[in-house]
């Protein structure tokens, strides 16, 4: 095997990529990544258990699969790509855990029959690469210093079975916590997550907890029992149209649920508390945005104490459950037309890896009370994303139907509200948003809101939201008549 060296034939403009597997699939993948800069991945070398392999496509073989942590650390690896068809899931889990310890994301080629008979592997990577979709290269967000926030500490994740929560658990688990407590109200999600992390899922471990964040007494009981030092609060309702129809449920989960968890955390002496928010909280026009903005206010109301609190604000997360890409795959796969609300609608996009990296970095950076926002570049037109995605999947003649903006939806999102001050942080691509502290009667306003939600008084909840959060001004979306059913133009 070649000795470790930082001198590699890597370009400076891509994510430093380590390929696991120097067989035919790995060689073909390295070839495509070297040829096509648009993938955004720069291969720097391989891992392979065959000691006779020393150099492949002019790239070094750094060691065996068991050397992934050592190599990823020494070579400053951003992405680990698994290029061994049929690699056992236990090996996949070990590699992913080791990579996560240095903040590297893990991608894998799809397991499909006849991979070695195919000459082109880059097209398979396209479904994993998102640079063309989000209009920028994916960013390696979490710094190596994050490990000091996690290592040997008891970490609790709410909403652990969701898309963001489960990725948080995977990456936190890789940073060697003293204990990882996974909380969710859905037992099936916990079963799936425990199986993925540990290779077995008997659900008899004290580290998986079924509980509802709406139950304040239960939250206090759990915090007292487990005494976590770090809490990542990912549990929430997130579908905008659903909450427009059921605003009381949004308040119960997103505002009062956050309040319950945070109060219990503060009472039990949690050191750091991070709540996940959304860009829809900036000058909100929807119930989702308003409830998340109030959750941010709840965080600010608890700043200045022994528990260091912060929030992180996401754009749209590609690949999460219910997000755009799974919907597109389902519609295209069934040969249906693709539905988009408006021909000019734009959104900020980020990958799950970026989102979780932002959460972990926020836990490290925070001094208390901030809302952190990732620099996500320019917003992307949905029609352009659909076009690029269809090309990557080799789907011709995509038909689009424009349905019109829905209640509460914006044509364009903002990362910061007009009343917020944006300030830099120690991370060059992460910014902070600082708003005025909550009003003196904030607790009374919340109490009235919670009471209306408890009585399921939807109209009163909307008015109470506007009263507790003056920037909230509901702007009903308008349905547009059908604009086009024509095949998607190639020049979009």
From TrEMBL:
What Pfam families does this protein map onto?
Answer: CoA_binding_3, Polysacc_synt_2
Q: Which InterPro entries match?
A: KR_dom, NAD(P)-bd_dom_sf, Polysac_CapD-like, Polysaccharide_Synthase-Rel
The superkingdom listed in its UniProt entry is Bacteria
- Where the record annotates domain Ketoreductase, the positions are 153-320
- Region Disordered: list its residue ranges: 473-492
- What family is this? Belongs to the polysaccharide synthase family.
Name the PANTHER family on file. POLYSACCHARIDE BIOSYNTHESIS PROTEIN EPSC-RELATED (PTHR43318:SF1), UDP-N-ACETYLGLUCOSAMINE 4,6-DEHYDRATASE (PTHR43318)
Q: What is this protein called?
A: Polysaccharide biosynthesis protein
Gene source species: Intrasporangium oryzae NRRL B-24470
């Amino acid at each position: 095997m070649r000795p470790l060296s930082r001198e590699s034939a890597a370009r400076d403009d891509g994510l430093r990529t380590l390929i696991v597997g120097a067989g035919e699939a790995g060689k073909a993948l390295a070839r495509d990544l070297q040829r096509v800069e648009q993938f955004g991945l720069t291969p720097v070398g391989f891992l392979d258990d065959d000691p006779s392999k020393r150099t492949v496509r002019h790239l070094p073989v750094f060691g065996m699969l068991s050397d992934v942590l050592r190599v990823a650390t020494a070579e400053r690896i951003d992405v680990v790509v698994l290029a061994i068809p049929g690699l056992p899931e236990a090996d996949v889990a070990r590699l992913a855990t080791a990579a996560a310890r240095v903040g590297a994301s893990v991608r894998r080629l799809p397991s499909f029959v006849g991979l070695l008979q195919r000459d082109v592997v880059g097209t398979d990577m396209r479904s994993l690469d998102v640079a063309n979709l989000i209009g920028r290269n994916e960013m390696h967000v979490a710094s190596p210093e994050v490990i000091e926030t996690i290592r040997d500490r008891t970490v609790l994740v709410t909403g652990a079975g969701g898309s963001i929560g489960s990725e948080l658990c995977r990456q936190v688990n890789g940073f060697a916590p003293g204990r990882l407590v996974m909380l969710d109200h859905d037992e099936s999600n916990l079963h799936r997550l425990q199986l993925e992390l540990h290779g077995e899922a008997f659900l008899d471990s004290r580290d998986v907890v079924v509980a509802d964040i709406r139950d304040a007494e239960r939250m206090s009981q759990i915090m007292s029992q487990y005494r976590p030092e770090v809490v990542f609060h990912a549990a929430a309702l997130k579908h905008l149209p659903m909450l427009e129809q059921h605003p009381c449920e949004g308040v119960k989960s997103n505002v009062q649920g956050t309040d319950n968890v945070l109060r219990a955390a503060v009472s039990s002496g949690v050191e750091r508390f991070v709540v996940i928010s959304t860009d829809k909280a900036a000058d909100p026009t929807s119930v989702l945005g308003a409830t998340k903005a109030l959750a941010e206010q709840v965080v600010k109301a608890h700043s200045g104490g022994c528990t260091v609190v912060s929030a992180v604000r996401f754009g749209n997360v590609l690949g999460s459950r219910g997000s755009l890409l799974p919907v597109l795959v389902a519609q295209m796969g069934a040969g249906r037309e693709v539905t988009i609300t408006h021909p000019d609608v734009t959104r900020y996009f980020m990958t799950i890896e970026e989102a979780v990296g932002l959460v972990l970095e926020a836990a490290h950076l925070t001094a208390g009370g901030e809302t952190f926002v990732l620099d996500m570049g320019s917003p992307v037109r949905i029609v352009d994303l659909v076009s690029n995605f269809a090309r990557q999947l080799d789907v011709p003649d995509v038909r689009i139907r424009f349905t019109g903006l829905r209640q509460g939806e914006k044509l364009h999102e903002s990362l910061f509200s007009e009343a917020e001050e944006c300030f830099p942080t120690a991370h060059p691509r992460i910014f902070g948003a600082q708003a005025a502290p909550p009003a003196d009667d904030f607790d009374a306003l919340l109490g009235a809101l919670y009471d209306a939600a408890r009585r399921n008084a939807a109209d009163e909840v909307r008015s109470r939201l506007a009263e507790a959060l003056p920037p909230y001004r509901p702007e009903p979306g308008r349905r547009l008549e059908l604009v086009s059913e024509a095949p998607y133009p190639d020049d979009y």
